[in-house]
Amino acid sequence: MDFALTEEQTLIFDMAKGFGEEHIAPFAQDWEAAGTIPKTLWPQIAELGLGGIYVSEAYGGSGLSRLDATLVFEALAMSCPSVGSFLSIHNMCGGMIDKFGSEETKQKWLPDLCAMNKVFSYCLTEPGSGSDASALKTRAERSNEGYVLNGTKAFISGGSYSDAYVCMVRTGEDGPKGISTVVVEDGTDGLSFGALEKKMGWLAQPTSQVQFDDCKVPADNLIGEEGKGFSYAMNGLDGGRLNISASALGGAQKALDMTVQYMSERKAFGKSINQFQALQFRLAEYETKLQAARTFLRQAAWKLDNGDHDATKFCAMAKLMVTDVSFEVANGCLQLHGGYGYLADYGIEKIVRDLRVHQILEGTNEIMRLIISRQMIAA
Ligand SMILES: Cc1cc2nc3c(=O)[nH]c(=O)nc-3n(C[C@H](O)[C@H](O)[C@H](O)COP(=O)(O)OP(=O)(O)OC[C@H]3O[C@@H](n4cnc5c(N)ncnc54)[C@H](O)[C@@H]3O)c2cc1C
Known about the structure:
alpha+beta, four-stranded mixed sheet, 11 helices, 15% strand, globular, binds flavin-adenine dinucleotide
């Protein structure tokens, strides 16, 4: 058993961290205020090979592992969890197309996806179905040319911003087996968007409903086979949950690093606040929790890379544990900053706001408990 990162993995982490420090962190607060991320950022990120992290090299991807991806997202989140997580959703779409698309489908979408000439969003949730995702109602009727979509997707990260939407739609019976996956390109007739959602965190990314009104999609925009879309969506989420966890971890680590520094500078009762043992113990607890979360996350990623039979359970356990611990640590770091933690200039309150949603999306942490316990009982 070897817990060390390889030299290449250390380089991947350092490269992503360095890029974030130069090209993301200095602008993160402005992008929050603007409610959007400049599209010029994406080709720069793609040049580093981060547009299609686990897409095969034959289609312009980097062909890296899920474990490598967790390093990228942990490192980028240290500059801004919202920007890093947005890239993670684009990569989740790339992974699904690479794994389940036909040769023609891959040729059609992946080169632009990897170069980030096209930014992709993932559309599963609907106004009436979130946790119970297989109850989705957006209909895709077969036509001579392809499919005609009618329905609404809710909470879509990148809604009205992205260039293409990977959509789970109903082509058949009720339940998971009647669901297929199609790509809808921006500008398609019948595709429109709701107003931008006003949110607590992840403010740099636009979130909106995505609406289909007799939206006509060519037949070759189908990914893989009809009726298998739900399993593709869930498969994508295994890796997505690792990335969302890694982003939470990176945000929390940044908050803790800033807190250690702050506590050496801030004085109360005639001494630096890092001299109070009660507060020292809090640092020790946070450090231990984050290191444990990191080890567990990487084990889950390793299981997914190896196709272990219990990889889905481990991805769910990692998501539950890492996102809960990360939020707790970030929130505790805000407390250790006193009133200053509540001020935007200190950067901690943004991390707390950003990390809260990691406990909710890509399956709530209650749904993670459901996945874990179901598998335990089935075994
Ligand atoms: C900022 C943001 C961005 C998002 N981005 C995307 C995106 O890009 N694409 C996308 O498809 N979706 C996206 N989502 C949607 C997200 O995945 C859902 O909000 C999430 O899955 C929960 O669904 P829901 O909001 O409908 O809650 P509900 O399913 O209505 O759940 C409400 C509460 O009940 C609990 N609950 C439900 N069922 C059970 C059960 N069986 N047992 C125990 N507890 C249960 C839930 O855990 C939750 O606490 C995003 C959400 C947010 C907030």
